[in-house]
Structure formats: C-alpha cells, structure tokens
Design a protein that fits this description.
Helix 6 runs parallel beside helix 7. By secondary structure, the chain is α/β, with parallel strands linked by helices. Strands 3-4-2-5-1-6-7 form a seven-stranded mixed β-sheet, sandwiched between helices.
C-alpha cells in the first residue's frame, strides 16, 4: 500500500482537483484507492458529491478518539465514491483539531495510527491536505511515504514551493519521504508556463512529473457536478492528463509502510528531532 499526501500551503494551485482526479484515474486503472479529505473546507468531499453537513461522524471524530475503547474507526466513515474508489469525508469541525490536541502527546501521528488499524486493504491512499502547513498537514505527511506538490505556473507559487519544500525536506532527511512536483493549470499558449516548467525541472530534476495538467474548463465543470473527470468527460485533455499522471504514479517504487510506521511510532528521539526542526522552521 502506498500513501501519498497532496500538499501545498498555497491555495488555488489545483491541489484538490489533483486529489480527486488522480484518485479516480488510479481507480480506473484497476487500483483500489482511498481518498482522505484532510481539509476542513471539505472540497474533496464536495467534489465527489458528498454533503459535509449531512455527516453524523467524520474524520475529526476518528482522530480525536484514537485511543478510546469504544471509538469510531476509519471503516465507520468510509463512503463509496465510485468503482475501486472510496472516500473518507470531512467537514468544518475538523478545523478544531489543532486547537483541541494542541498539547496532546502523539498528536502528529493520529492519522498514521488510524490507517495502521484499518482492516480494509487499498493499493493507494491519497490525502488531500488543507492549504497550510499545520497539524493536519503534518499528520498527513507523517502517514505518507510520498508527497505530491501541485504548482501553478506563477512566480508567487514558486516562492511558496520553496518554503514548503524546506519543511518537507525535514521528512526527506529523517524518514526518506519522496517529493514529487506536479505542474498544474499549464497554459501552452503562454511562454510563462513553459519557462516555469523548465525552472522547476532544473531545480527538482527527476522529482518533477513529466505529465503536466493543462488548464481545462472541463475539470472545473466536473467538480461543480460532484464528479471526477473520469466519469464526467473522457474526451477532454483533463482526462488524458490525469490518466497519464496516474500511469506515472504507478511507476513510483513502493516503500515499506510498516517499516516507516515502526520508525515513526517507535523510538521518540527521531520524531522529536523532526518536531523540533519543524517548529524552528515555522
């Protein structure tokens, strides 16, 4: 099982669009996929036609009571979102997670523990993170072996990418996370898009996906209908882009999730070192 966090502290970069449509594209390749909506805005849930306000329990309830005996577990809140595709939905109450667990030991590994206790098996777990580097994103990165960073072709986005990479580099050094850069909203008509793509490839080399996600209005329309592009329009360039991305993701070597979990949940000095550096960088 491969767990991938889709993360960028900058909003409007196509992060949730990537999470939804990459999940659906992997599912269309026959992979069993679970998408976890880690964003209190619940856009991934809405994009798969799940109404956050109608949820009786959500991810917040699972993460909050991870050590309690009669607690809800991830299987209790899994929603079927399509063939080979399941969703862990969220709602606005998840925004209270960081404040509620501010001084709680092990707060940064709640999601990892929940995933480790799951009995359902998936080929891929994708985590849609909020547009910030806080405790929710930190939980996602602790649970993942890989991080995909969507980047729109703007110089402001490149600046944000540099800041985010500094934080994720802490994981790369301590826990061998892989960073993968994905260029989104690519406009082939502009020189700027091409120049920024070349700049990204120059700095991140093999960590840059060859696939780019072109600007495509059909992707926005699909989201408004609560449908992934794999169901909404199989003839548009957005569908072809995400299918190509899924094929690249499948080629990423798989790491031992159990070995990583043992490293994180085992000796605390390694984790404490990451937390210290994380706070200092923040």
């Amino acid at each position: 099982m491969k767990t991938i966090a889709i993360v960028n502290q900058k909003g409007g970069c196509g992060k949730t669009t990537t999470a939804i449509n990459l999940s659906a594209s992997l599912a269309s390749l026959g992979k069993r996929v679970l998408l976890i909506d880690m964003d209190p805005q619940s856009h991934a849930s809405l994009g798969l036609n799940i109404k956050p306000n109608e949820l009786e329990i959500c991810l917040y309830d699972v993460l909050l009571s991870i050590d309690e005996v009669d607690r809800p577990i991830l299987e209790d809140i899994i929603t079927h979102a399509g063939e080979n595709l399941d969703l862990i939905p969220s709602n606005i109450v998840l925004s209270a997670f960081e404040q509620k667990l501010a001084n709680t030991p092990g707060r940064e590994t709640r999601l990892l523990q929940a995933i480790q206790k799951m009995k359902r098996e998936y080929d891929y777990i994708l985590i849609d993170c909020p547009p910030s580097v806080g405790l929710l994103s930190f939980n996602a990165l602790m649970a993942a072996q890989d991080a995909i960073i969507p980047v729109e072709p703007s110089f402001f986005s490149l600046h944000g990418l540099g800041k985010l990479t500094e934080t994720i580099q802490l994981f790369t050094e301590k826990l061998s996370h892989n960073i993968h850069i994905l260029l989104t909203m690519f406009d082939r008509r502009t020189r700027l898009s091409s120049e920024i793509f070349e700049e990204v490839k120059k700095h991140f080399r093999e960590n840059t996906f060859q696939t780019v996600i072109h600007f495509n209005i059909r992707l926005k329309e699909a989201a408004s209908f609560g449908s992934p592009i794999t169901e909404f329009d199989k003839h548009c360039i957005g569908y072809k882009d995400f299918l190509s991305l899924a094929e690249e993701v499948v080629q990423i070597p798989e790491k031992d999730m159990q070995e990583q979990a043992t490293q994180i949940l085992g000796p605390r000095p390694v984790l404490n070192g990451i937390l210290f550096s994380y706070k200092a960088a923040d």
